[in-house]
């Protein structure tokens, strides 16, 4: 029976798809057309995600198998073949009935079901390095389990733009070809149809970007210069494979539109393997493509904050567990299984679909003010709010796995070290030695001071009821140190911390801050070493100020007109904001803050509480802190009980830096970019995600750095919500962090409410380098020292132990643990200093490893086998490139 394709999704464009017609004179002569059949996968959007998963494993896969069976009487290259991404195929195999699973496996081995390398379409900017690598495991496990070679092709659909980590990721995983199909309404990056995409590590990946639809047209455009064409016939979101009749109709249409060409049904890899033989002359595009949808993630600020933390802590847990077994601690839990489950939740959060779409009538309708309140009270939004909860639960579930497990593992270590009585163990998850202030929550008595068991250093403590803080010095790389309670007096140290509440000033040995009491912001911030002023006092924005923007219909309509490239009649309700009245734009910040200064032996702080008023309908708190031993300024924003607001809004923290003709360095996923040079036109110039930090520099490569472990969304020069620019280049030294927004009107959370916090850190840059100026301070902030305590009798483990160290800071160890793709353990290094380097990797004493075999990101052995001598191995690292070693 012929299927009815419902116009329910943001993926439809009336002129495109399967009915597109070309005259014979318009069609270039090609020798061969490879036809690929696929369905666009959304984990949610068309239904609650649990229902989508159920349908894929039942009716949808059965329907596809039936079409395959009906086509078996045709020649092999004419039979129906369906391409599926890795994660939904994993779900089909896992959750289908036993007899259906057998049919699926046979279809894969027979070459009628293809599984491409990626798990699904993702918002790549929302991800992190190692979770992206691990996401390739769904497809590769299927291929290995069935004795098949790994996929060399990959596909993304819908999402307009992707981080330039993609060519680095896929090329270093052995993937040769990527197809990106864009949402038909969204503006596309200005790239050729077929090109080499060069990543930050200089890897090149053949990339086919089709800006008009998920798949491609059935025949090539007039100026197609090659002898092979790729016709991707892709059904709409979660609508399943074609019936046999639809499949035959599509093939016949392609044959008609490509007279004289051989038409065969195959895979994306078939296209690559055919066209590469032509030795095609392709343009190389070296550039990042910030996504024009990425702002939607900040509609879930709490979950986004947790996702960023879990992307580090999940892999840190596995590394810690692997190291602990070398140190002599027996594993009591299946850590790698727990980590895998956590990573799956992270991957599903990175998948591009958040929830149901109000514009498709799934739940309620766009309303504001009292009408919104009434509809919500009646339960008309219950269905859509549940779909957002499903999305958030992916991260909440991961958090539930990782946080308690890591806590238990650290407590077991603290209980096992050779130290009697109350002791604290501090673990460093980064591969270089470091020092920092740590906090322990405990009611136990820790006497006057702490003593480092190995070095003998006596350290003063700050105890405020159940909160204990101290400076933990020289914690070994990916290792730990033990501190015991002692009555010995710590050496007196002169404090540089001070404040003057009357003048509104506080300072330490690194900085002097003067506050604007009326606005509760920073009026002046002096770097004492250079005597440079960090704050641009002449800016229209205040330094460290929270602002709430409430947008007008004129702004949302202008954005829609600038951004929507086709299909206005349906796309406006998806990408604009319908049913708004003519209320004017409004920006509000708190005033007349209640300011309270405080100081202890480790830090000095100014806390400012702002009460809402007629312009700002919520309270919030700002805390500014300087530390005795740390050359950074900490800024904390905290909101308590923000009300839900369906009207388009956004919240920002502004940092207008005192830099003329500012140059920016953005620590993006995979490497540092210059936004004035390294962003492909047509992608997002107004707003994007950072992975590490930001440098704001003058002509002498000096200036300031800033990052947030919690908030990745930033705009430069001016706030960038509800803007789409084609030629914007930031010049003013202003950095804005986006605390929340509800701009994305399609399938992201549409109103933000509740209580949460976000932290920001600022520092000075004397002479800019990617590593020391951005990567190292940002990674130390995102990977804080971890701490636990225990009491009672001493254990058997050494009081201090070294883990893994690298010879240069800024080289990351993104993975250390069980090799998911074969025997042995695996360590992955990722160069992030932006330069080639020889790196000495030192493993912990007692390591069992004798050899290190190079492999790619999917565990395929490549290159030489190195000998590990004295627990060390030297490798050559290329700029921004990952290196993986199987340890045996």
TrEMBL record:
GO molecular function annotations of the record: alpha-mannosidase activity; carbohydrate binding
Domain Glycosyl hydrolase family 38 C-terminal: 506-639
Biological source species: Flavobacterium gilvum
Phylogenetic placement of the source organism: Bacteria, Pseudomonadati, Bacteroidota, Flavobacteriia, Flavobacteriales
Taxonomy, superkingdom: Bacteria
Biological-process GO terms, alphabetical: mannose metabolic process; oligosaccharide catabolic process
Domain Glycoside hydrolase family 38 N-terminal positions: 33-256
Residues making up the signal peptide according to the UniProt record: none
The protein, known as: Glycoside hydrolase family 38 N-terminal domain-containing protein
Database matches in InterPro entries: Gal_mutarotase_sf_dom, Glyco_hydro/deAcase_b/a-brl, Glyco_hydro_38_C, Glyco_hydro_38_N, Glyco_hydro_38_N_sf, Glyco_hydro_b
Pfam name, any one: Glyco_hydro_38N
């Amino acid at each position: 029976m012929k299927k009815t394709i419902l116009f329910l999704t943001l993926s439809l464009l009336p002129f495109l798809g399967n009915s597109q017609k070309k005259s014979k004179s318009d069609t270039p002569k090609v020798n061969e057309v490879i036809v690929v059949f696929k369905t666009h996968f959304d984990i949610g959007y068309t239904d609650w995600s649990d229902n989508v998963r159920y349908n894929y494993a039942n009716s949808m896969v059965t329907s596809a198998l039936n079409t395959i069976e009906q086509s078996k009487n045709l020649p092999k290259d004419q039979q129906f073949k369906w391409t599926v991404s890795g994660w939904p195929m994993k779900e089909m195999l896992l959750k289908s009935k036993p007899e259906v699973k057998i049919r699926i496996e046979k279809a894969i081995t027979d070459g009628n079901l293809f599984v491409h390398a990626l798990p699904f379409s993702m918002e790549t900017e929302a991800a992190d390095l190692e979770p992206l690598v691990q996401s390739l495991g769904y497809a590769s496990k299927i291929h290995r389990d069935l004795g098949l070679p790994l996929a060399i092709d990959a596909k993304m659909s819908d999402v307009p733009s992707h981080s330039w980590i993609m060519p680095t990721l896929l090329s270093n995983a052995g993937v040769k070809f990527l197809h990106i199909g864009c949402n038909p309404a969204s503006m596309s990056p200005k790239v050729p149809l077929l090109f080499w995409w060069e990543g930050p590590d200089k890897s090149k990946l053949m990339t086919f970007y089709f800006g008009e639809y998920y798949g491609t047209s059935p025949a090539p455009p007039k100026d197609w210069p090659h002898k092979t064409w790729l016709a991707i016939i892709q059904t709409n979101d979660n609508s399943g494979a074609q019936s046999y009749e639809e499949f035959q109709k599509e093939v016949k249409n392609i044959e008609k539109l490509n007279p004289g060409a051989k038409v065969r049904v195959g895979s994306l890899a078939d296209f690559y393997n055919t066209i590469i033989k032509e030795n095609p002359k392709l343009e190389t595009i070296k550039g990042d493509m910030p996504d024009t949808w990425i702002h939607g993630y900040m509609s879930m600020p709490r979950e986004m904050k947790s996702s960023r933390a879990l992307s580090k802590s999940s892999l840190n847990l596995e590394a810690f567990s692997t190291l602990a077994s070398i140190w002599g601690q027996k594993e009591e839990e299946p850590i790698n299984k727990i980590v895998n489950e956590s990573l799956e939740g992270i991957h599903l959060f990175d998948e591009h679909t958040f929830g149901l779409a109000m514009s498709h009538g799934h739940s309620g309708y766009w309303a504001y003010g009292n009408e919104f309140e009434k509809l919500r009270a009646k339960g008309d939004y219950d269905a859509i709010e549940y779909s957002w909860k499903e999305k958030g639960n992916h991260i909440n579930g991961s958090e539930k796995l990782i946080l308690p497990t890591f806590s238990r593992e650290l407590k077991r270590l603290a209980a096992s070290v050779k130290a009697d009585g109350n002791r604290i163990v501090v673990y460093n998850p980064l591969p270089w030695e470091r020092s920092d202030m740590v906090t322990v929550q405990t009611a136990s008595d820790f006497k006057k001071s702490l003593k480092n068991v190995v070095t003998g250093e006596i350290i003063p403590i700050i105890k405020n009821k159940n909160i204990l803080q101290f400076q933990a010095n020289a914690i070994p790389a990916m290792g730990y140190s033990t501190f015991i309670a002692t009555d010995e007096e710590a050496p007196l140290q002169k404090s540089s911390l001070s404040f003057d509440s009357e003048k509104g000033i506080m300072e330490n040995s690194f900085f002097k801050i003067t506050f604007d009491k009326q606005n509760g912001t920073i009026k002046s911030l002096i770097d004492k070493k250079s005597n440079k002023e960090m704050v641009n006092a002449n800016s229209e924005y205040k330094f460290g100020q929270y602002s709430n923007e409430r947008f007008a219909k004129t702004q949302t309509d202008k954005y829609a007109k600038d951004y929507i490239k086709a299909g206005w009649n349906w796309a406006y309700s998806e990408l604009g904001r319908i049913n708004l009245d003519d209320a004017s734009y409004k920006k509000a910040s708190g005033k007349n803050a209640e300011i309270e200064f405080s100081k202890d032996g480790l830090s000095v702080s100014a806390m400012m509480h702002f009460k809402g008023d007629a312009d700002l309908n919520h309270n919030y708190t700002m805390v500014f802190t300087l530390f005795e031993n740390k050359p950074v300024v900490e800024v904390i924003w905290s909101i308590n009980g923000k009300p839900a607001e369906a009207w388009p809004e956004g919240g920002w923290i502004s940092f207008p830096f005192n830099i003329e003709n500012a140059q920016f360095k953005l620590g993006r996923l995979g490497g540092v970019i210059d936004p004035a040079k390294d962003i492909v036109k047509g992608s997002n110039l107004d707003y994007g995600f950072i992975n590490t930090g930001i440098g704001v520099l003058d002509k002498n490569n000096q200036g300031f750095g800033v990052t947030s472990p919690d908030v990745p969304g930033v705009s430069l020069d001016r706030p960038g919500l509800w803007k789409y620019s084609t030629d914007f280049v930031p010049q003013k030294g202003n950095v804005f962090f986006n605390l929340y927004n509800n701009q994305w009107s399609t399938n992201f959370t549409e109103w933000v409410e509740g209580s949460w916090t976000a932290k920001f850190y600022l520092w000075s840059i004397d002479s800019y380098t990617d590593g020391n100026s951005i990567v190292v301070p940002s990674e130390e902030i995102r990977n804080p020292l971890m701490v636990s305590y225990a009491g009672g009798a001493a254990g058997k483990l050494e009081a201090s132990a070294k883990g893994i160290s690298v010879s240069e800071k800024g080289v990351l160890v993104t993975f250390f643990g069980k090799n998911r793709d074969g025997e042995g353990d695996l360590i992955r290094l990722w160069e992030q200093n932006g330069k080639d380097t020889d790196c000495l990797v030192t493993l912990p004493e007692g390591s069992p490893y004798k050899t290190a075999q190079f492999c790619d990101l999917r565990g395929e052995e490549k290159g030489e086998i190195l000998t590990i001598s004295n627990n060390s191995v030297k490798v050559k690292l290329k700029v921004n490139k990952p290196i993986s070693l199987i340890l045996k």
